[in-house]
Amino acid sequence: MIINKKKLKITLSEKILLIFLVTISLFFIIFFLRISNKCLFLNSLDEKNLINYKNKKIIILEVPCGKVAIKLFIKEAPLNTKHILNLIKNKEYDNSFFYRVKKNKLIEFGDLKFGKKDNLDYLKIGTGGSSLKNNLSEISSNYNFKRGSVGMVKRGKFDTENSQIFILLDDIPSYDEQYTPIGEVIEGIELLKKIKYNNNSEFVLRPDYVKKIYVYKFN
């Protein structure tokens, strides 16, 4: 018996259709992965980049998508940075919520009285502080609040800074000479854009939280 073997030829239109289907499939796969994992494709902290700041005080903020490196302004804001470092040393910021988030604008955390995982009060969050006394404001007329700036939240008036901290995701000139700058993000600001936010309110229901903060130790 003779079997006639003929190769099936794929037409140009069939090739185009196949490529289109594969492309669409890949698109939906990537889209699904990004929805289910908001941290996908984000780079982790490269500690080699911190060597240039060896003579500075660096703290590491661990957020849901990785680690963020912040350089503290020890000389410019000695009272407030000392205060913050004491709270970090006692692990007070660990498990504290990012209770106020404005998409691509700013994030706030550090209400250690009403905004921690073991003590969350939606009615009071953002109004509390820590067990330490308030600090004096350390305003700088030469500092411009810009993307990556880290500052102290105040309660309506000067000299009320305590434990709450904000980080800017965009330039906000109106903050100049109004808030105490305590540092700036040097690595990982893109991770902060993935902090959970609410389109209808600055305050977030079931917010993301700080895993931990610690002082970076150079080898």
Produce a short descriptive summary.
By secondary structure, the chain is α+β, with helices and mostly antiparallel strands. Helices cover 19% and strands 20% of the residues.
The neighbouring-strand order within the major sheet is: 3-4-8-7-9-2-1-10
CATH fourth-tier homologous superfamily of the largest domain: Cyclophilin-like
The count of helical stretches stands at 3
Helix content: 10-25%
What is the H/E string? HEEHEEEEEEEHE
Shape: elongated
| Oligomeric state, counting identical vs distinct chains | single chain
Task: Catalogue the unreliable spans.
Answer: none
At CATH level 3, the topology of the largest domain is: Cyclophilin
Class per helix and strand makeup = alpha+beta
Q: What is the highest CATH level, the class of the largest domain?
A: Mainly Beta
The fraction of residues in strands falls at 15-25%
Supply Rg.
24 Å
What is the CATH architecture term of the largest domain? Beta Barrel
Mean pLDDT: 89
What does the largest sheet look like?
A: 8 strands, antiparallel
| Annotation, overall tally of beta strands | 10
Q: Any idea how many domains? A: 2
Any descriptors?
20% strand; 10 strands; eight-stranded antiparallel beta sheet; 2 domains; 219 residues; 19% helix; Cyclophilin; alpha+beta; two-stranded antiparallel ribbon
Describe the fold and architecture.
This protein is of the alpha+beta class. It has two domains: 12-41; 47-215, Cyclophilin. Helices cover 19% and strands 20% of the residues. The chain has helices at 12-36, 78-89, 189-192; strands at 58-63, 66-72, 100-102, 106-109, 115-116, 119-120, 149-152, 165-168, 180-187, 212-215. The strands form two sheets. An eight-stranded antiparallel β-sheet has the order 3-4-8-7-9-2-1-10. Strand 1 (58-63) and strand 2 (66-72) form a beta hairpin. The longest helix has 25 residues, at 12-36. The protein is elongated, with a radius of gyration of 24 Å. The model has no long low-confidence stretch (mean pLDDT 89).
